[in-house]
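P.,

For your records, the input lines for the assembly:
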Amino acid sequence: MPAAARDPVALPALLPLGLDGVLVRFGTTFTEEGNRAARAFAAEAAALDGVTEVVPAPASVLLRLDPREQPAAQVQSAARALLDSHDWLSLPAAPAARCWHLPVSFAKADAPDLPEVARITGLPEADVVTRILAERPRVLAIGFAPGQPYLGQLPPVFDLPRRAQLQDVPAGALTLAIRQMVLFSNASPTGWMQIGRAAFRPFQPDATDPMPLRTGDEIRFHAIPDGELKALGEDPMGGARLEILS
Amino acid sequence: MTGAALIVSAPGPALTVQDLGRPGRAGQGLSRGGALDPLALWEAAALLGLKGPVASVEMPGMGATFAVTAPMRLALTGAPMQATLDGQPLAWHAAHPVRPGQVLRIGGTTGGTVGYLTPAGGLATPPLMGSRAAHLAAGVGTLLADGTSLPTGDDPMPHRPACALRPEPRFGGGSLRLLPGPQTHLFNRARMESFLAARFTRGPRSNRQAIQLLCEAAQDWHLDAGGMASEPIQVGDVQITGDGTPFVLGPECQTIGGYPRLGSIHPEDLPRLIQADARSPLHFTLLDDAGAAPLPVAPAARLKRLAANVTPLLRDPAHMHDLLAYQLISGVTAGDELDRP
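Structure tokens returned:
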């Protein structure tokens, strides 16, 4: 039985994390509803008295506090009141305020796992790419590495398991697993499968805004011809274009 | 004085510039980073008479040879390391005035895992996102290479005599308080009791991202948590990886993680974990109620407490070549006079 099924805590749950944190959990597994709730709650929780930092995750939100400034119990009460003020798990899908257009290379060298994804999904490689290009995934959470987005949710055909054997991917790798994509900030070992590569870097330490993506942003991928990635490579924005939707 | 610098030669494999890191950016995927043992930076601040920690050289395991281009005081804190100035042994947990032309050699740790060298003016490298700390996992900053010249801030009292500090005890392992957290209930009572009964030592896969804990007992603490959504994690969290090995997250940890977590180490006990070397046994005690746990010490109170432990370093016996000429024992006592009320 997976651990999540054994979880006796009713949802949404409010749980202390360390001395300086309160975790608000909307789901033990990933769901669109839980993610929407986490993103919406995170946006409002930042204004709560005593909250010094908000860390949204795929199905939960961490509120950080300074227990010497404001007792954790007070912040928990404020978070509980906010939690009880809406039915967070029934929020309708909200349209994105911003859309990023990201050039991506699907050339053989930039998409080493495309054949494997084609094999598991039963789709021809070209169809995998066409379907990914037609998607408008949202930034579900930013984390693991600086600026690094979890994107989704993709259709059920892309519900691929993560590989047990980790493989190295480069910065800018567009990877896929469990109906989500991750665009890697830095070179990293991973169990996710690399199906493309962007010149855009989600973490740009020398830029005014070092982590340009925000949770809730919409993403559209645009295929670029083989060899064009190198030409885009010098600028960490990598040819990305931000469209303001509302 | 401007333009002063600290020159690094023949560095050990893991030297970096560290301060207290970049709090407040975990929501954007950047963990706080900063010194493995922040207490050592507070101790340096107390020794140097500073208002708070400044950027220092962090030296895990092995130091380097250092020289200064202007007179300045240098504080040596954290894990004690072999240190000499122009060949003469130098006291650790102390601050020393150093002049241009002198050679400060810092070798290996003699207890603990990570030592710090702090110039009184702080390292004045260009800050990035509000900190000078290298965060190698995030791709910020680099390891210090041979010949690196690190700019330093002004030391207003470069000739102030040496002083020493009684360090907060933390270099031999011991007990770590575990705060229950959002996933503690995933571990049943038998698993938790076996974890609390186990004795651990630091494993070789320890770094700034996480500290590996090894133990001889059978490790059956892992869970099938494959379906669990990744949740926010932070320094001090104890996670159990797929093969049952516990890892305590370090300052350069990822910000979201999927491995199940037993709980979090009380922040006041983290330096003891960080400074426990492979020979120092560690064990955990579970705090029943995180809400009733003692709070971390406030910065001002910490500095005041440490400053009260600073004393002049009048004469280090290690420097005294004619030690045998001194009358060192003038009588025999019970040895506890100073401790008696």
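Two observations worth noting. The longest strand of chain A covers residues 98-105. Confidence is low (pLDDT under 50) at residues 1-7 of chain A.

Regards
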